[in-house]
Amino acid sequence: MKKRVSKIVKRAFDLSAAVLGGVFAAPVILIALAVIHRRSPEDPAIFRQTRVGRNGGLFTMYKLRTMTNEKDENGELLPDELRTRRWGEIMRRLNIDELPQILNILKGEMSWIGPRPLLPHEMAVMTAEEQAQRQSVPPGVTGWEAVNESKSDSRRRMAEYDLEYVGNWSLGFDVKILWRTFLLLLADKRPSDAFRAPKVKEEEIVRK
């Protein structure tokens, strides 16, 4: 019963904070959209990508585009570092690119706090049981793994932080994560994108 009430409180917080945050974020998003359109008019300003959500369902996650879609002579996208422009670096550093995820929260697809929203192939570093446990809650904009990302240098380690969060979840744990997120943003000490989102290594994949 206590757990159920806590989940209701969490969802109420998500909705109220998303509505309030949306009001304040709207001018920032509009300015960012204008900058992206001006600097890179050939592609949509909103980046959409399929991620794994609660109970393993798929959903479309929204972000502001921070890279161009330039391709090589074979039609393949260039490496991220070659497609990232100064305007994209600024948006990532200030976490402005994450603001459209407010819509995902309002739709109930995400929470402010939860496991990192993964691409389907990134789930392969966990067993089926671990995947079910991890996806028993909605993914979050921030989370236990996110505030420990300077230590989670592999996809498996990232998964372990998320599993630890789900296994020990409480409202108090969420408050702790929110506070640590605030401190990290204030200190501007997030690691580089390459470290924060390492590629899945062959040896990490769980074989069935």
Largest sheet: number of strands, sense, barrel closure: 2 strands, antiparallel
Strand tally is 4
Distance between the termini: 36 Å
Helix content: 40-55%
The sequence of SSEs as H and E is: HEEHHHEHEHHH
Query: Nearest-angstrom radius of gyration?
Result: 17 Å
Supply the number of helical segments: 8
Strand order of the largest sheet: 1-2
Low-confidence stretches: none
Fold and architecture overview:
The chain has 208 residues and is mainly alpha-helical. The chain has one domain. Helices cover 47% and strands 10% of the residues. The strands form 2 sheets. The chain has a two-stranded antiparallel ribbon with strand order 1-2. Strand 3, helix 5 and strand 4 form a beta-alpha-beta unit. The radius of gyration is 17 Å and the shape is globular. The termini are far apart.
List keywords for this structure.
208 residues, 8 helices, single chain, mainly alpha, two-stranded antiparallel sheet, 47% helix
Secondary-structure blueprint of this entry?
Blueprint: H1 2-39, E1 46-52, E2 58-64, H2 80-83, H3 86-93, H4 101-106, E3 111-113, H5 128-134, E4 140-142, H6 155-167, H7 171-187, H8 193-196
Parallel strand pairs: 3-4
Antiparallel strand pairs: 1-2
Task: Describe, in short, the structure shown.
The protein has 208 residues and is mostly helical. It has helices spanning 2-39, 80-83, 86-93, 101-106, 128-134, 155-167, 171-187, 193-196, and strands at residues 46-52, 58-64, 111-113, 140-142.
